[in-house]
């Protein structure tokens, strides 16, 4: 998918402020049993089609509205992902502006997760 220049500029500005990690980093954290919120910020239909095993769903359109109810402790570790790592960077940037101090965006998103052959599951958001 070709992205528009204004969108890419916004993403690049956010990337300067947001910590990113690889899909392997996330997979290793899960394998070690680390406790963190693993959140898919894609649209409902994208999440229902397939998502990283163990991920929960909060769409980018509502994450700023709902995050404080879901995760009131602002130091809690959170890893966000989307389709390719763009929307999750924007969401992570917004959460940091809201005072969340331990937010990471998974670079490459579900696309990189699939390419790595990591486990997927399907189904509607809880």
From TrEMBL:
InterPro entries: GlpE_sulfurtransferase, Rhodanese-like_dom, Rhodanese-like_dom_sf. It holds the Pfam family Rhodanese. PROSITE patterns: RHODANESE_3 (PS50206). It comes from the Bacteria. SUPFAM superfamilies: Rhodanese/Cell cycle control phosphatase (SSF52821). CDD domains: RHOD. Residues 32-122 form the Rhodanese domain. SMART domains: RHOD. This is Rhodanese-like protein. It comes from Nitrospira lenta.
């Amino acid at each position: 998918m070709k992205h528009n220049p204004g969108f890419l500029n916004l993403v690049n500005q956010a990337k300067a402020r947001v910590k990113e990690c690889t899909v392997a980093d996330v997979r290793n954290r899960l394998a070690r049993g680390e406790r963190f919120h693993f959140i898919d910020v894609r649209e409902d239909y994208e999440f229902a089609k397939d998502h990283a095993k163990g991920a929960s769903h909060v769409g980018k359109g509502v994450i700023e509205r709902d995050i404080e109810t879901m995760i009131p402790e602002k130091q809690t570790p959170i890893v966000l992902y989307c389709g390719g790592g763009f929307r999750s960077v924007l969401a992570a940037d917004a959460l940091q502006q809201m005072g969340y101090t331990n937010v990471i965006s998974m670079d490459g998103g579900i696309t990189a997760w699939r390419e790595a052959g990591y486990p997927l599951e399907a189904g509607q958001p809880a």
